[in-house]
Design goal:
With 627 residues, this protein is mainly beta. Helix content is 9%, strand content 35%. The protein has 3 domains: 307 residues, TolB, C-terminal domain (Neuraminidase, 6 Propeller), CATH 2.120.10; 107 residues, Nuclear Transport Factor 2, Chain: A, CATH 3.10.450.50; 116 residues, no CATH class. A hairpin with a 6-residue loop joins strand 22 and strand 23.
């Protein structure tokens, strides 16, 4: 196992869960929930309601410390009028909590230190002291503490600072004066200071949608928005966020926005209709792409519910009309218009592929209660293979040899499988552009092979991917045992198992020469990190645009993790699960002992053996959906 460059994860919660006998620890993501959660057996549901904090008016003869504490509680509770009672008259007029550019989230309650009195007044020339012009009593109170995370109001991103960085214990200073014999705040810093619990009470997750670099797929990017914001303000803020690519782990070439640089964008909301005006040099393609981003972001895309029911896009004074309809439309609603290849798009009745003991590759569809559909032999590759993967477009087949992990790739329908350079491959996953991704486990490597460039050609040879702990010059190269990986349906995000005990997410960033040249590729990891040091993880599969399912080993525990950091859901099966595969909108299918397969409509549903109409179990090794 290589030497690991640890990501700057400040909050790690270790728990022992008797029901599953695992030790789980979850660290804070850059766009996920504030409260860490344990890996526990459950059947869904939300986290319990947090206790609400209520501010109170300042009392008589309160000390500067008490004034600052009361002000912090009132602002955290969104009681602006109460908070203004803690401010001196001039500061009360100036102060606007909606203009705070940054929110600091502390691991625990921030420390409110004893006030620092001002320096004594210097004697006036000649020895006299200017007593008559002496200012009123004043003091400075410092508030500090270990920063859990920093939320930027500019783009809604939630970042975990480095433990040794300047924000690890960022001090904030409050100036106070005596007004009418009582201490009041004369200058408050332009930030919000919250505890984890207060942050969870005040903010909610919403999804922004950006495009992959080729503008073919929409990629969800969770951000935090204030719960107290009005629907109009929230709409304006979300539209503003779409004008620039994400500022988090999905940045630096991983995703793009269709909004042209320099375009002027305004948004209003009235009775559920969001009207977005855009002016500038905008192509026809960009107009349709902007409409897709707006619809998926504003209409029903947020975890907290939608307040926008339709969108009216006006480009340079002219109403945009989708090309998908022959009739003019007044609004762009989900019923009348949607992106052709959205992040949540699914293929109804998608086939599942699997091997039999003789090396035949079959396709099948699975109905309700585990009843198999038409089983079709697609090709024969011969015995000696332990795992297969089919490309998303159904053109290519990849197979791993048992024992040595040799990798073979070839056409799915006929043709010969060609052995690829190297050995020890452990996992297979195709992206939407027919690139095959594979890890080498103990060799600490991830390779990508461009099958679509021509098998056996220079472009199809394995290219090693670099894995970094983040974006930018401060990121470090990660050297781990990459046990498993799965590419998301959008081709941008990747779910990875590191050292068999850590679930991590990353964004794929292509370097120069992408396309036929394919020279370099990098995976930049997010801060979302889930560890299970007892049972570990034996596999991972994408369950939808925002969810993955892990297979716990050596037991048979399946756990669904929202990529945005929401509440996980687990189920322990009563039989030995050897593999798990999922696809958006499709049944979950697991490979179990004796070459049998089981399915369930969802993670908490009942599992049934996949069988023919007569009840004969269908035998299959390494069941997999395309991808």
């Amino acid at each position: 196992m290589g030497s690991r460059v640890r990501r700057p994860l400040l909050a790690v919660l270790a728990v022992v869960t008797a029901a599953l006998a695992v030790t789980g620890c979850v660290s804070i993501p850059n766009a996920g929930p504030v409260l860490s959660y344990p890996v526990t057996e459950q059947t869904g549901g939300q986290n319990g309601q947090n206790l609400q904090f209520t501010g109170q008016l300042p009392g008589t003869d309160w000390t500067p410390q008490e004034i600052v504490r009361g002000f912090l509680i009132a602002t955290a509770a969104n009681q602006d009028q109460v908070a203004r009672e803690y401010l001196a008259p001039g500061e009360s007029t100036r102060w606007n909590p909606q203009q705070a550019t940054t929110t600091y989230v502390y691991k625990t309650s921030p420390n409110v230190l004893s006030p620092v009195p001002p320096q004594p007044t210097a004697p006036a020339p000649g020895g006299a002291t200017a007593k008559k012009s002496a200012p009123p009593p004043s003091a400075t109170v410092e508030v500090n503490g270990t920063i859990q995370a920093i939320l930027s109001t500019k783009d809604g991103t939630y970042a975990v600072p480095s433990a040794s960085g300047p924000n690890s214990s960022s001090p904030q200073y409050f100036s106070l004066v005596k007004t009418g014999g009582e201490w009041r705040i004369s200058l408050a810093p332009p930030v919000l200071l919250l505890t984890q619990t207060q942050f969870a009470d005040d903010y909610d997750l919403r999804n922004l949608y950006f495009f992959d670099p080729n503008y073919h797929y929409l990629v969800p990017d969770p951000v935090y928005v204030p719960l107290q914001a009005s629907a109009g303000l929230l709409t304006t803020r979300l539209v503003g966020y779409l004008q620039s690519p994400p500022g988090d782990w999905l940045a630096e070439g991983a995703t793009q926005t269709a909004f042209p640089s320099g375009a002027k964008v305004t948004a209003t909301l009235a009775e559920g209709l969001a009207t977005v005006n855009v002016t500038g040099a905008i192509s026809k393609a960009a107009r349709a792409q902007m409409a897709s981003q707006l619809l998926w972001t504003l209409v029903g895309s947020g975890q907290g519910g939608a307040q926008v029911t339709s969108v009216d896009l006006i480009v340079n004074g002219k109403q945009f009309e989708p090309a998908s309809t022959n009739n003019p439309v007044e609004t762009l609603s989900q019923a009348s218009y949607g992106p052709a290849t959205g992040a949540g798009a699914t293929a109804a009745g998608q086939l599942v592929y699997y091997l039999d003991g003789a090396g035949n590759v079959y396709s099948n569809s699975v109905g309700v209660a585990g009843v198999a559909g038409q089983q079709t032999r697609v090709t024969t590759i011969g015995p000696g293979y332990s795992q297969i993967a089919v490309s998303q477009d159904g053109k290519y087949l990849a197979a791993l040899a048992s024992g040595n992990g040799d990798l073979y790739i070839g056409p799915l329908h006929g043709g010969r499988l060609l052995k690829q350079p190297g050995s020890g491959y452990t996992t297979l996953s195709w992206d939407p552009t027919d690139n095959l991704w594979s890890s080498t486990g103990a060799n600490d490597q991830i390779f990508v092979i461009r099958a679509g460039a021509g098998l056996g050609s220079r472009q199809a040879r394995p290219i090693e991917a670099t894995v970094t702990s983040g974006a930018g010059p401060g990121s470090g190269v990660v050297s781990d045992e990459f046990t498993a990986l799965q590419i998301a349906p959008d081709g941008v995000r990747v779910a990875m198992i590191l050292d068999s005990d850590e679930l991590q997410f990353g964004a794929i960033v292509w370097g120069p020469g992408t396309g036929p040249g394919l020279e370099s590729v990098r995976i930049q990891l997010s801060f979302f990190n889930v560890s299970d040091f007892t049972s570990g993880f034996a596999g991972v599969t994408w369950y939808g645009a925002d969810n993955v399912i892990t297979l716990g080993g050596p037991g048979s525990t399946l756990t669904e993790y929202p990529v945005n950091g929401g509440t996980p859901t687990s189920q322990m099966l009563d039989q030995s699960v050897q593999s798990i595969t999922a696809s958006p909108g499709q049944a979950l299918i697991a490979g179990v002992a004796k070459g049998q397969m089981i399915e369930a409509s969802n993670l908490t549903g009942a599992w049934a053996t996949i069988a023919t109409g007569s009840g004969t179990p269908v035998k299959g090794i390494s069941p997999t959906y395309p991808g």
